[in-house]
Each structure stands twice: as C-alpha cells, then as structure tokens.
C-alpha cells in the first residue's frame, strides 16, 4: 500500500523531470526522486541501501549536478522533433526487451528465487559465528564480499582520477575575478547571519554523525561509503556558506589529493597483512589470534579506508568543479 | 494504528507538496515545495521506523534532515551567484591579495 | 501509565497530522511564495514537533529517544533557516508579496472612509 503510493509519486516526479526543459528544476526534482527511492528501499527493509541513496542521491549528487550546471548553463536546447525518432526507437526496444526479461524473473518476494537459495542462507545463518557484526549487511559487504568492495573503492578512485584529468583539480589557481553578487554587498553580509549561525551549529554535528556512522556500521545501518559522503557534505556546507577559499585553506587540495590513494592503500594493506600472516588476501581471521577479533579489526580498518577514499574523492571533485566554474 | 494514520497524513502532505513542486510557477515555489517535501519525508521515515517496529531507521531520517539543508543552501547559492564556489564578502579575508 | 502515554501519543500524532495536511493544503492553495513559505514552515514547526513528541513518548530506549530529539532539533533549525534564506532571496530578487497590495488598498480605503480628524 505504502509502496504503491510511493511508486506513484516516483512516476509523477519522473514525468515532471522529463517534461521540464529548465535544468535547474530538473535537478531539484532529481533530488526529490532520490529521496523517494530511498523511502521505497526503506519500506523494502533495505536500510543500508536506503542510507546510501539518501546520502548520495539526495545530497551529494544534487550538489554535483549544480556544480556541473554552473559550467554548462541552465537551459537545455529544445530538440527538433525529427531527431527524437531514432533514440525513441532504441529506448522503446530496450524497454520491451527489459519487460520481456522481467517476465522470467521470480515473483517479488518469492522465497524460492535463486537469490535466496544460493549463498544467502549461509550469510544469514552463519555470519554471526564466522564474522561477528550484528549487521549482516556489513559482514557481507566487508568480509564475505571484500573483493567486490575493494573493486568498488577502486572504481571510486578511478572516477576521481578521471575527473582530475578532465578538470585539472588543484593545480590551477583562479585568476579570474569572481562575478559580483547581484545584491549589494552590505545587504548580503547582513542576510547571511542566520545561515552562518545555523551552519556553525550544524557542521560539527554533521561531522560527528559521519564518524558515528563510520564506527557504528557494524551494529546498525551505515559504513564507510555513507560516512564518507556525510563527512563530505559537512565540508560542502562549510564551503557553500563561507566560500571555497576558506574551505581550501582548511583542506589544501594539494594535500587532499593524496587521501583517496591513502584510503585505497589502507584497504589493500589489510589484505597484504593478512597474506603475510598466512591467510588469503583480505582474510581477516588471521590478523590476530582470535578469528572473530581479527574479522572485527579487519572490517573496521577497511571501512576506514573506504570512508577516507569516498570523503576525499567527493571533496576533491567538489573543489575542482567549483574552481572551474569561478 | 496511530502510526498508520499519521503515515497516511504525511503521505498526503508529500503528495500536495510535490504537486506544488510540479506546478510551481516560479523556481522559488519549487525550491520551497521540495524543501517541505523533504521535511515530510523525514517525518515519514521516522514514523515508518515505528510503524515497522524497527526504529533504527531514524539514522536515515537524521541523515536526510542534515543533508537536505546542504542541498537547499547549494541551490539557493547557485541561484543567486550562478556558481557554488564564490566566496562570501563576509568570509575571513583572503591570504593572498592581488 | 502505558495507556496514558498511548493516549497522549494519539493526541499529539493526530494534531501533527492535522497540521501536516493543513500545511499541504496551504502549499497548494496560497497565492504567492511568501504565504506558501508560511505554510511550509508549519510542517517543520508544528507538524514535526507534534509528531516527534508523539514518537518520543513511544521510544523503546534512550538511544532512539536521543536520536528523535536530535532529528527534530536539526530539522527545525535547518529547514526553517533554509525557508528564511529562500524568503530573503525572493525578497532581494524583487518579488513583491501579493497580499501587501491588498493591505495597502484596504488601508487606503479605510483612510478614504474615515479621514483622520486631527
């Protein structure tokens, strides 16, 4: 019931996004779309995914969209009608194929579906004895599927390299004067008082909450990805309120550029250490004498690596976009 | 039961706020409506946690309450200056003066 | 005691729901962005306040109660601040409230009807 209502709202927002030609409005509605998706994930009991979607989709990606819009401009050109036809055919065909494929999928929530038969029972039954953390998602993500998560962090790092090569982060000092704000400067100063006070009140709790999510990921929803994004959005808030330069004085981009690599290397180092102690790559059980403690330390260390990489990549990308658009 | 009734009320409110976001003649109306819809969704997530008997869900509500602010500030700043990186005149003075 | 808490929760949650729906109607039906901002602020203050208070009475343990209080606090502070910033941006952009004209007109009418005696 709640699902249906949320899906209807989701469809409505998608329709509105497609129909609007003003990109800024589309970005706004995209953030709304993300948080609706997060709500649906939550109704489906996928708390960790909902967490990621709420943090990434609603917060960070909105800001990145805006930063990109600052470079490319706000209006999209109307497409001539005859240019629509070929893409329309491709999209419809793909949609039909996907619909046809979905006929073969098991019914929603079917207990006999392959995904519930293969490894899921082992995760659900044995993870408490084998890995330890009460949050099974964390133990699957960080321990059973440690290679996959390593790959994901590698993807995030690669994206960072790509953005760095495209935009040239941190190397170019801005020589162009920033555009003068539309309002009179005096008024702008007076007006920002409320926002500044509120931001001062909020930034520190955001950062602390990020650390809580980081270290509490074993017991509740959360983990390195979410914590990194929340930490980064705290820094974004500072940069938005006080301007990019104070934020860059706080976190010099030149030094910040090392941190994505540090996080990834920390992750890899845990794997190497477990190899040196006679186990497989990323087998945390051999890290210390007690296997469960080893799993716990290993998960904490790699979550820290993930968090560092994600936060540093997000902040770096934000800085390079904002410098570019000045 | 009380959670269910509250959930329905909040969903209606989300629907109305989204209708305003789609209709909104000016961009300000849309920003306002999406801010309100975000607040409603925070309420919805909190109540949903209680409705489904898993109040851990509050973490997500808290996250979104904090992140919604960043998003709205970014939108307002973009709207006013056309870019996100502009330093505010009230910010501490630059170290390097040209 | 539990019954009493339940009753109080019912009442506050219903008041909160009422305010949410009222604010939704306000968002849809109010004539311009300033009055809509008023309606939107009502969700944050009364709606969220009442609903979170109702939930707080039902919180099973302290961690959840603390999280509820924090969520409410940050929601109140940040959302109202962003509505404030929005209203000020609108004001600087030069949009005049529609109702201001009505007030001016009413005052003019009143002055016409009863000119000040001294």
Describe the protein's topology:
The complex is a heterotrimer of chains A (326), B (98) and C (118).
Chain A: H1 2-19, H2 23-43, H3 47-72, H4 81-103, H5 114-117, H6 120-130, H7 136-144, H8 146-167, H9 185-215, H10 224-242, H11 244-250, H12 253-256, H13 259-276, H14 291-325
Chain B: H1 2-23, H2 27-51, H3 58-81
Chain C: H1 2-29, H2 33-57, H3 62-92, H4 98-113
Helix pairs in contact in C: 1-2, 2-3
Structure description:
The complex is a heterotrimer of chains A (326), B (98) and C (118). In chain A, 76% of the residues lie in helices and 0% in strands. Chain A is built from 14 helices and no strands. Chain A is globular and about 65 Å long. The termini of chain A are far apart. Chain B is mainly alpha-helical. Helices cover 72% and strands 0% of the residues of chain B. Chain B has 3 helices and no strands. The longest helix of chain B has 25 residues. The radius of gyration of chain B is 18 Å and the shape is flat. The C terminus of chain B is likely disordered. Chain C is mainly α and 118 residues long. In chain C, helix 1 runs antiparallel to helix 2. Chains A and B meet through helix 1, helix 2, helix 3, helix 9 and helix 10 of A and helix 1, helix 2 and helix 3 of B.
pLDDT < 50 stretches of chain B: 89-98
Outline type of chain B? flat
Overall tally of structural domains of chain B: 1
* Unreliable stretches covering 5 or more consecutive residues of chain C: none
First-last Cα distance of chain B: 65 Å
Helix/strand class of chain C: mainly alpha
Q: Considering DSSP H and I runs of 4 or more, what fraction of the residues of chain B is helical?
A: over 70%
Tell me the strand percentage band of chain C.
under 5%
Order of helices and strands of chain B: HHH
Mean pLDDT across every amino acid position of chain B: 79
Query: What's the count of strands of chain B?
Result: 0
Radius of gyration of chain C: 20 Å
**Rg of chain B from C-alpha positions?**
18 Å
Q: Got a strand count of chain C? A: 0
- Percent strand of chain B: under 5%
Largest sheet of chain C: none
Which assembly state applies to the chains in this document? Answer: heterotrimer
Label this structure with key terms.
heterotrimer; B: 98 residues; mainly alpha; 0% strand; disordered C terminus; C: 118 residues; 85% helix
